[in-house]
Specification:
Elements: H1 4-7, E1 9-15, H2 21-36, E2 43-45, E3 54-61, H3 68-72, E4 76-84, E5 86-87, E6 99-100, H4 108-117, E7 120-124, E8 133-134, E9 137-138, H5 139-144, E10 154-167, E11 170-177, H6 183-193, E12 198-208, E13 211-212, E14 217-218, H7 219-226
Parallel strand pairs: 1-14, 3-12
Antiparallel strand pairs: 1-3, 2-3, 4-11, 4-12, 5-6, 7-10, 8-9, 10-11, 12-13
Length: 227
């Protein structure tokens, strides 16, 4: 009997908080190998989520890994919380606050104006604390050693940037964007456009193309079903 995971499965998984995307892939690969007695099985994900982010992670197994590149190119939508008045080197809560500024002069009108300014095609610089490789090494390793790295901008597109709540210093929003967009960079740039500072406080991926978080299952539930 053929193994459905070798033939190819597309799994919708809710990524746990503080897990890397690779952690999830590796956990599933080991579980499948143990369950079916398979020494080698291909398992991959269609779009990285940072450790502090949660939400939809598409996992492909076996022959389905061939469509990962296509899945990665789909539009992604997020629920994000941006914190004003504080910046961090990683642009999120992974590193300590490095700069603070008062936000008493910022109002709702400023917030909506800046959000609208992000819409459309633009150039974005990725965070230095990222998994992008330069010289065969991931950027975050260089950043943690304090090395200075020259980054190139990349073309991205923001289709939707909707402010859903302003509860200063926290701003909640919905963002839909193209492949390769860093929401952490958007949060940092949001502060700059306000002549202030900001960082990403919370992030959840709601969808990748027509794949929705509401249809995903927790990693724990998936592993329990294998038993």
């Amino acid at each position: 009997m053929s193994n459905p995971f070798l033939e190819g499965k597309t799994l919708l998984i809710k990524k746990p908080y503080k897990w890397t995307s690779f952690d999830v892939v590796n956990k599933i690969r080991i579980a499948l190998s143990k369950k079916f007695g398979i020494k080698k099985i291909k398992v991959g994900h269609a779009g990285t989520l940072d450790p502090l982010a949660t939400g939809l992670l598409i996992i492909c197994t076996g022959k389905a890994t061939k469509k990962i590149l296509k899945l990665q190119g789909l539009e992604k939508c997020y629920s994000a919380t941006i914190k004003l008045g504080e910046s961090t080197p990683s642009f999120d809560r992974e590193t300590d606050v490095s700069k603070t500024l008062p936000i008493i002069n910022i109002n709702d009108s400023d917030i909506f104006k800046v959000a609208n300014s992000f819409l459309g095609n633009q150039e974005q610089y990725p965070p230095v604390f990222s998994a992008i490789k330069i010289g065969g090494e991931k950027l975050y390793n260089k950043a943690r050693r304090g090395e200075k790295v020259k980054l190139n901008s990349r073309k991205i597109k923001i289709k939707t940037f909707k402010i859903t709540e302003t509860k200063f210093p926290l701003i909640k929003c919905k963002i839909c964007c193209s492949k390769g967009t860093y929401i952490r960079s958007i949060a940092n740039d949001f502060g700059i456009k306000l002549n202030n500072v900001a960082h990403l406080y919370d992030l959840k991926r709601d969808s990748i193309g027509f794949y929705k978080l509401k249809d995903a299952i927790s990693l724990e539930d998936f592993l329990n079903k294998l038993h």
